[in-house]
Design goal:
Blueprint: E1 3-8, H1 13-22, E2 28-34, H2 43-46, E3 58-59, H3 63-69, E4 72-75, H4 82-89, E5 95-98, H5 108-114, E6 126-127, H6 130-139, E7 142-144, H7 148-162, E8 172-177, H8 192-195, E9 200-201, H9 209-221, E10 228-233, E11 240-247, H10 254-264, E12 271-273, E13 289-295, E14 301-308, H11 312-327
Parallel strand pairs: 1-2, 1-4, 2-3, 4-5, 5-7, 6-7, 8-10, 12-13
Antiparallel strand pairs: 8-11, 9-10, 11-14, 13-14
Helix pairs in contact: 1-11, 3-4, 6-11, 7-9
The structure holds NADP nicotinamide-adenine-dinucleotide phosphate.
Length: 342
């Protein structure tokens, strides 16, 4: 079976990554690439690395026309855009995977507090973290692909939160990201002369990904959880390293903790539990999430380190993993490439 796929937001960074990965997917045809300001340009003009690989022109999105030719649509657009397009895309049999925050929140009021007024709050997406929601994703027509920081934080914390082995009131997540996390439009803080030899904390207590992390940790724990999340910008292009500090209810050894992680992720194709603390270049360019940990000598505080590529497992790779699940493909189709190291 070959499935026709369209990408709205194909001129951006996650759009480029969708195109790059889907170009090597064995079971799909790329049938449309859409954007806004770059309408009329060839994909290879905007993404020169895709020359002679993808021969599409960026068009203005028209949902009626898109659903006539696409079975699956990725919306890789800034928040506030998909909410206007998705109702039209779901009118036919199309399946949609949205990479923005528009459908990630169970409570639209929380979305509106951190983002903008919702224009299609009646539509609900399945939260697209396969390691937690594979069964629901399989049946979904609209998947809300998780944020990049939440992907790293949640995969790092899920085993301990689900088993309630830690103090749920004192979870500290200290995360580092590269500049591609901010998308293709240049900003002062991501401009190379400013960011190229710098390290900076930002939105130390107010980042939009905090309520998304809290929503999912609360569901895992079966009670309200409020973690303490602070992001930092590093002079990397890709990659997130997320360090979670947690306090164990009962002292445990490193090997006991590792065993819990190994068991939790035993059948997961893209989560690797490691003996050592993982580094960003173990995963950059790939759909892997690597997790390592270290416990303090008294066994009370554990430090969980999680790494992902923000554009792959943190966005487009995970979106393709979700598509594979929705379509009944092999979950790893198009995603088997290892990381780029060095
Ligand atoms: N970057 C990451 O690491 C990352 C990770 C996880 C999730 N995300 C989320 O993924 C989404 C896309 O992020 P990005 O980094 O790829 O952003 P980006 O590089 O700024 O790209 C945005 C894309 O959306 C298109 N677009 C904007 N407004 C549009 C409209 N009204 N109609 C149609 N297309 C429109 C743009 O087209 P033109 O260029 O033609 O104007 C561009 O192709 C965002 O919601 C972001 O939060 C990003």
């Amino acid at each position: 079976m070959t499935v026709n796929v369209a990408i709205i937001g194909a001129s951006g960074y996650t759009g480029a990554e969708l195109l790059r990965l889907l170009a090597c997917h064995p079971k799909i045809n790329l049938v449309g690439a859409y954007g806004m300001k770059n309408t009329g340009k060839k994909v290879s003009e905007i993404h020169p690395h895709l020359r002679d690989i993808i021969d599409l022109t960026i068009e203005e999105p028209n949902c009626e026309k898109i659903v006539k030719k696409a079975d699956v649509v990725f919306t890789a657009t800034p928040h506030g855009v998909a909410m206007k397009l998705v109702p039209g895309l779901l009118r036919e049999n199309t399946k949609v995977i949205d990479l923005s925050a528009d459908y990630r929140f169970d409570d639209v009021k929380i979305f509106e507090k951190y983002y903008v007024k919702h224009e299609s709050p009646e539509l609900k997406g399945v939260y697209g973290l396969p390691e937690l929601y594979r069964k629901e994703i399989k049946l979904a027509r609209l998947v809300a692909n998780p944020g990049c920081f939440p992907t790293a934080a949640l995969l790092g914390l899920a085993p301990l939160v689900k088993k309630k082995l830690i103090d749920l009131e004192h979870i500290i997540i200290d995360a580092k990201t590269g500049t591609s996390g901010a998308g293709a439009i240049p900003t002062e803080s991501t401009h190379h002369p400013v960011a190229g030899a710098n390290v900076a904390a930002y939105k130390a207590t107010t980042h939009r990904h905090a309520p998304e992390i809290d929503q999912e940790l609360s569901k895992l724990a079966g009670q309200e959880v409020k973690a303490h999340f602070t992001p930092h910008l590093l002079p990397l292009i890709r990659g997130i390293l997320s360090t979670a500090h947690v306090f164990l209810k009962k002292p445990m050894t490193n090997s006991e903790l590792l065993e819990i992680y190994r068991e939790f992720y035993r059948d997961e194709p893209f989560v690797r539990v490691r003996e050592e603390l993982p580094q960003v270049n173990y995963v950059v360019g790939s759909n892997y999430c690597d997790i390592g940990l270290e416990n303090e000598a008294d066994g009370n505080r554990a430090v969980i380190v999680t790494v992902i590529d923000n554009l792959v497992k943190g966005a487009s790779g995970q979106a393709i993993q979700n598509m594979n699940i929705m379509l009944g493909f092999e979950e790893t189709d198009g995603l088997r490439g290892p990381a780029l190291r060095p």
